Amino acid sequence: MLHINKDVTLELLSLSHRDELFALVDANREYLRAWLPWLDGNTSPADTEEFIKAVILQYEAGMGPQYAIFHRSDLCGVCGFHEIDCRNRVGSIGYWISQEHSGKGIMTQSVKTLIDIGFTQYKLNRIEMRCAVENHKSRAIPERLGFQLEGVLRQKENLYGEFVDLASYSLLASEYVLSE
User: Fold this and answer.
1) CATH code of the domain in which 22 resides
2) Which one of 50, 65, 79, 176 is at 20 to 30 Å from 108 when CA atoms are compared?
3) What does the pLDDT profile of the chain (180 residues) look like in tens digits?
4) 113 in a structural domain
């Protein structure tokens, strides 16, 4: 368990999170659907279990952790590495948070911890984040954390039949300052 501050902790995703995580996704389905393309593929606790099993295998293979985010003991979201390209020492971070917990700085602090892990434990040279151009809340996180906007990937993601542009951000190890 990683203690971010007195209210926020991160726990490696495990099968023990299955039911609570599915319930959180289900309760926030319409809110999350605005920007996340995977909701139609997660319609039961069994789907959530398959996701968790996949991220456990990813972590065990040295390809980066995925964390359950807790605010005052309430599961409120997920953040982690989508993938790590070991050869090129590049990691890609993704995240989501419940509507109730959005806008409280929880995700920014959680992602900052992921960045620390990426540069110190995984010895990455580059960390990337991609957000839908119109998803201003999500884009604020890499911008707040000093990432550089590298450009826009046109019609990069199929969001329920509509192709959306993604803003592509990066932070290099040479630009990184360890969190206090």
Assistant:
1) 3.40.630.30
2) 50
3) 899 999 999 999 999 999 999 999 999 999 999 999 999 999 999 999 999 999 999 999 999 999 999 999 999 999 999 989 999 999 999 999 999 999 999 999 999 999 999 999 999 999 999 999 999 999 999 999 999 999 999 999 999 999 999 999 999 999 997 654
4) yes
| 131 within some domain | yes
What are residue 29's phi and psi, to 5 degrees?
Answer: -55, -50
In a domain, 180, yes or no: no
Q: Residue 70 belongs to what H/E stretch? A: strand 66-71
The number of CA neighbours under 13 Å toward the Cβ of 78 is 23
Rounded Cα–Cα distance for residues 104 and 91 (Å):
25
Token duo for residue 69: 């985010």
The CA dihedral of 15, 2, 105, 174, to the nearest 10 degrees, is: -110
Summary count for the chain: helices (H), strands (E) = 5, 8
Cα 136 to chain centroid, rounded = 15
Q: Which domain holds residue 38?
A: 2-175
Overall domain count for the chain: 1
**The length of the chain, given as a count of residues:** 180
